[in-house]
Design a protein that fits this description.
heterodimer; A: 404 residues; alpha/beta; FAD/NAD(P)-binding domain; Enolase-like, domain 1; 5-stranded parallel beta sheet; 11 helices; B: 64 residues; alpha+beta; Alpha-Beta Plaits; two-stranded antiparallel sheet; two-stranded antiparallel ribbon; 19% strand; globular; iron-sulfur (chain B); Fe-S_cluster_ET (chain B); transport (chain B); Ferredoxin (chain B)
Chain lengths: 404, 64
């Protein structure tokens, strides 16, 4: 393979950053160009709803690396978007000016937050994905001391937790009857609800017909079937859509994500997709999935970097995830999103330390752990090695090892 | 350079171990960070700074 044209990475998020870093650490010495369309060097997103919102981390702290790092490792950061890809000529046209040739193209285009329709330009309705979003959220929160959050998923709840700790009045409105209903077990939902309520967060669950009210271009409140509240600040945490348009327009297959094979390659073998934008066959879940997590971005980038330097292996990493709310650490390993599973809860609800073990067809497929990192690590080991653990085997697994 | 780690924040991502393997390790049982050297020498500074920036849980800080 000629490496004259080099590697082009589209997207400066966690996956794009990790890809260039992994290529260099695995000895790739060709040209690397990273297209990043935000006016910041690549940065961490997880702290935006945690330490950054609290004021415990600055903009500069969030950067994965300083400008010197990229210069020293010979990685060119281009602040621009890719406007089009021509797979035939292996060229990316940039949005502002010029084009780049590639030997390999990595699509790490990420996802974008869903927006509530019909509210474009209304002040006080905010979203949280980028550093610019987080700056606006923090400024407005400090100014109003009051926030209504639509959506009780991880992001909404992390913001709710931090906002309450900052002394703000916090209300969370959710369509589902419980918190984190897509992936958390009822026991975990209940524990987080109690602990967040104890910190002053108010919940409006099973709420339908949610509508943001505004007057004169400014948010004035939120109403739903059964209630309403006045507020000047609304955060919508209602999910994301993968950025697939670039791939679709290049003739690549997209569905809920850019479709890849087990090696994270698209139908054009020189083009890969990784991170939040990629839909790939997951061997642990037994289906095509698209995951939004640091783990997924980092491990997929490492896998593709290895393939580029000549060690192609199918992507097989175990998905894991974490969240931090109400002073508790939630860690999830494997698949906890499936239906019709048996869930066994072990631990102490009062003490705020428990794990929920998810079984499908009596095989352990996922574990949620709250303040039980040992269970989480054990789950990662078991699930990674695809050990078959039934519900009946669980007590023995959790028993403390006998003293030597 | 002096550093400290907050095990309460750690989520066992292992990024620090990759960045500075002589300074950080992970506990076998729970995956939590183990600080091998609280005062790493200047020769390891680049790796340590990288570990601080890469930790997704922001569990490593300078201990001034």
């Amino acid at each position: 393979m000629s490496t004259s044209a080099g590697i082009v990475v589209v997207g400066g998020g966690q996956a794009g950053f990790q890809l260039q870093q992994a290529l260099r650490s695995q000895g790739f010495d060709g040209r690397i160009s990273l297209l990043a369309d935000e006016p910041f060097l690549p940065y961490q997103r997880p702290p935006l709803s945690k330490a950054y919102l609290k004021g415990e981390a600055t903009d500069d702290d969030l950067a994965f690396a300083t400008a010197d790092f990229y210069r020293d490792s010979g990685v060119e950061i281009i602040e621009d978007r890719a406007a089009a890809i021509d797979p035939r000529t292996k060229t990316v046209t940039l949005s502002r000016a010029g084009s780049l040739s590639f030997d390999r193209l990595i699509l790490a285009t990420g996802a974008r937050n869903r927006r509530l329709p019909g509210l474009e330009g209304v002040h006080g309705l905010v979203s949280l994905r980028t550093l610019a979003n987080a700056q606006e959220l923090r400024d407005r929160l400090l100014a109003t001391g009051d926030i209504v959050i639509i959506g009780a998923g991880y992001l909404g709840l992390e913001v709710a937790s931090v906002s309450a700790d900052m002394g703000a009045s916090v209300r969370v409105i959710e369509m589902a009857p419980r918190l984190m209903s897509r992936s958390a077990s009822p026991a975990v939902s209940r524990l987080f609800q109690e602990r967040l309520e104890a910190r002053g967060v108010r919940f409006e669950l099973a709420s339908s017909g949610v509508r943001v009210l505004h007057h004169g271009g400014q948010v004035t409140g939120v109403e739903w079937n059964g209630g309403s509240v006045r507020t000047k600040l609304v955060l919508a945490c209602i999910g994301v859509d993968p950025n697939t348009e670039l791939a679709r327009d290049a003739g690549l297959d997209v569905a809920n994500g850019i479709l890849t094979d087990g090696y994270l390659r698209t139908a054009v073998p020189e083009i890969y997709a990784i991170g939040d934008c990629a839909a790939y066959p997951n061997i642990h879940f037994g289906q095509t999935v698209r995951l939004e997590s640091v783990q997924n971005a980092v491990d997929q980038a490492n896998c593709v970097a290895a393939a580029i330097v000549g060690e192609a292996r199918p992507y097989a990493s175990l998905p894991w995830f974490w969240s931090e709310q109400a002073g508790m650490k939630l860690q999830i390993a494997g698949n906890t999103t499936g239906q019709a599973q048996e869930i066994v809860v072990d631990g102490d609800h009062q003490a705020g330390a428990l794990s929920a073990f998810h079984f499908r067809d009596d095989v352990l497929v996922g574990v949620e752990s709250v303040n039980r990192p040992k269970d989480h690590m054990l789950a990662r080991k078991i699930l990674r090695s695809r050990q078959v653990i039934s519900a009946a085997m669980l007590p023995q697994l959790l028993a403390p090892a006998p003293a030597a | 350079m002096r550093i400290k780690v907050d095990v309460e924040k750690c989520i066992g991502a292992g990024q620090c171990v990759n960045a500075a393997p002589a300074v950080f390790a992970q506990n076998e049982d729970d995956g939590m960070v183990v600080l091998l050297n609280q005062a790493p020498p200047e020769s390891m500074a680049a790796g340590v700074r990288s570990a601080i920036r890469l930790c997704p849980a922001r569990a490593i800080v300078f201990d001034d």
